[in-house]
What does this fold into?
Amino acid sequence: MVTTLLVAVVALALIFDYTNGFHDAANSIATIVSTKVLTPFQAVLLAAVFNFAAYFFIPDHKVANTVAKTVHEQFITLHVVLAGLIAAITWNLTTWWFGIPSSSSHTLIGGFAGAGITNALFMGQHGFDAIDSASIIKIIAYIVLAPFIGLIIAYFITILILHICKRAKPAVAERWFKRLQLISAAALSFAHGTNDAQKVMGILYVSLVAAKIIVSGSPMPEWIPLACYSAIALGTMSGGWKIVKTMGSKITKITPLEGVAAETAGAVTLFITEHFAIPVSTTHTITGSIIGVGLTKRVSAVRWGVTINLVWAWIITIPISALIAGLVFMLVRHW
It folds into this structure.
């Protein structure tokens, strides 16, 4: 039966997906805006188009399945999902307001897990019985691994490009890399769509199971991916200029060549993790890639003070989101 609570959960899930889009727009467009290849409006339009284009090319939903299994089914209720979404939206808006490129992915997973743990406690069970430890450990591990993989790939791509182009005229090379950056930014936006939209798809799927609209294991209704890709694309079009400034200029100075390397490395990393059904942070990945580009110049080219602050934001995202979700669940569980 479709209830008011289910409608509210679906609406909040799509609102979160929208906030995910404008919160993470910087991941796809920061470098292409900072190198002045595109204007901000042109950049967000490009990113939004390729966010949505992923809908037509990704028939399976492996990342969505991983997110759906984060909390064991017997502990999932609509109130758990509602509390997780409220926590995730709250943290997303807070970090967006302060221009902190935290992970929308991890705040969603942290909120979902925190509400599930709290529900288990109210059911008289051990709280951590509610979560799938293998999935959580994998997700936490990739807080470190995703940016490190992006860093390594970006470093070697940059070195390779510099070696190939060492005899090219600077003006000619810059002109070509400005063109290539259109392709690399599009690839990163496409990868962003495949990764981030799927997380909300997983949340919506378990919501329908909890509401007994569908049974667990049945195919995902077609409206879910269509709605999620649409919401994240619309959010991306809204931009997130405070975070664009941090990503595009505060970590290291970016040229078109380096923009191509960072965006390509970010896209490759996201394609790899999507293939293995690992829900990673697009924010972490592109940040690592930008650092990798900066390291090819010299270690001091990276503004480590800014980077360390970002890392602290990444570390606290899951526990804070889980705590907020637990508190919200205690307030809403009887609604």
Notes: The mean pLDDT is 87.
